[in-house]
Amino acid sequence: MNRATVVTEALELLDEVGLDTVSTRRLAQRLGVEQPSLYYHFRTKKDLLAAMAEAAMAPHATAPLPSSGDDWREWFLENSRSFRRTLLRRRDGARLHAGSTPTGDLDRIRRKLAFLVASGVPEKDAQLAMLAAGRYTVGCVLEEQADAGPQEDLPADVPVLDHEAAFEAGLALILGGLVQHTAPAGTGSGSGSGSGSGSVQQ
Question: Which domains does the chain have, with CATH numbers?
Answer without folding.
Answer: 3-146+163-181 (1.10.357.10)
